[in-house]
């Protein structure tokens, strides 16, 4: 098997490659010389190409696509035109216009497009379930520090108009878990954001999204981007009490956070041609997040 890594714009493809290397020959493309050098040091047998077109010409069996969000739609169009299955590292869109464009591209072959938070496949969540009929309300709490952006790392991710900022890039983790549990029939009921600690950010470090499912179940996603610990908690309220699961990195973050299982699910897509994450769910998640991003005014709460 040959897998192409199209872009190394975030940390995810570096982690992905660690799992993929045990299953496939790796070919890659990345314009940034520092990221390219790092990848070559970690995977000295990987072949690099000059651009995405040349990468696709190597006839890979599947593609892991990780480019800055504004360029994802154009890149995905080339991948799908080559009739290839594709893992689009999250988030696939950060603004309503980006979502409109990538949704139109994915419509060509939605069954060959997989885009998800890795937490969907984390063992602590994947093996956990609730009775949908008993659910009264749900809450997801995302704790993931974003101070690296305040230092100037990957400024496009912190830009609300490009990568979506903390609200989108970290909020997707909580919303992914809730949609995976309750389904894609969800809408945004409200959002508030604040900048409490990391004053060098262009976006926020704290956010809360209010949600509503079509059957009336309310939900909340809390995003804490100024934190000393990384964890992801889902709480489901029923008449009997509160059922809770917590996803944490543990001694092996690749396993504990679902990175390894996500790549294994992607390899199943490569073999079968059918994504384990329906595009209808991905689109619903992105619709809520991009609507939230679009509705937020310039931050009034700064410290």
Automatic annotation (TrEMBL):
Q: Which InterPro entries match?
A: Gfo/Idh/MocA_oxidrdct_glycsds, GFO_IDH_MocA-like_dom, NAD(P)-bd_dom_sf
Q: What is this protein called?
A: Gfo/Idh/MocA family oxidoreductase
Q: Which organism is it from?
A: Actinophytocola gossypii
Q: Which Pfam families match?
A: GFO_IDH_MocA_C3 (PF22725)
Tell me the domain of life: Bacteria
Keywords, comma-separated and alphabetical: Oxidoreductase
Question: Is Transport set as a keyword in this record?
Answer: no
Asked if the record carries the keyword Oxidoreductase, the reply is: yes
> Domain GFO/IDH/MocA-like oxidoreductase: where?
134-239
């Amino acid at each position: 098997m040959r897998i192409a890594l199209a872009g190394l714009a975030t940390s995810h493809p570096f982690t992905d490659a660690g799992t993929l290397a045990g299953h496939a020959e790796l070919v890659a493309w990345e314009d940034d010389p520092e990221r390219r050098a790092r990848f070559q040091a970690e995977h000295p047998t990987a072949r690099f190409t000059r651009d995405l077109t040349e990468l696709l010409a190597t006839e890979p069996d599947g593609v892991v696509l990780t480019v800055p969000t504004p360029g994802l739609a154009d890149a995905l169009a080339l991948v799908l035109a080559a009739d290839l299955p594709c893992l689009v590292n999250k988030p696939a869109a950060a603004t309503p216009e980006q979502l409109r464009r990538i949704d139109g591209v994915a419509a060509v072959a939605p069954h060959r497009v997989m885009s998800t938070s890795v937490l969907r496949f984390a063992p602590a969540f994947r093996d956990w379930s609730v009775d949908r009929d008993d659910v009264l309300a749900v809450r997801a709490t995302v704790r993931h520090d974003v101070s690296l952006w305040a230092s100037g790392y990957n400024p496009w991710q912190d830009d609300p108009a490009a990568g979506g900022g903390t609200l989108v890039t970290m909020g997707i983790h909580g919303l992914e878990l809730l949609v995976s549990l309750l389904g894609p029939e969800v809408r945004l009921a409200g959002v508030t954001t604040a900048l409490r600690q990391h004053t060098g950010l262009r976006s926020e470090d704290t956010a809360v999204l209010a949600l509503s499912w079509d059957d009336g179940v309310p939900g909340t996603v809390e995003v804490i981007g100024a934190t000393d610990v990384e964890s992801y908690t889902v709480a489901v309220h029923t008449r009997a009490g509160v059922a809770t699961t917590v996803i944490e990195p543990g001694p092996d973050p690749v396993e504990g956070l679902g990175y390894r299982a996500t790549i294994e699910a992607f390899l199943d897509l490569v073999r079968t041609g059918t994504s384990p994450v329906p595009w209808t769910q991905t689109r619903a998640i992105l619709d809520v997040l991009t609507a939230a991003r679009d509705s937020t005014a310039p931050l009034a709460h700064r410290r």
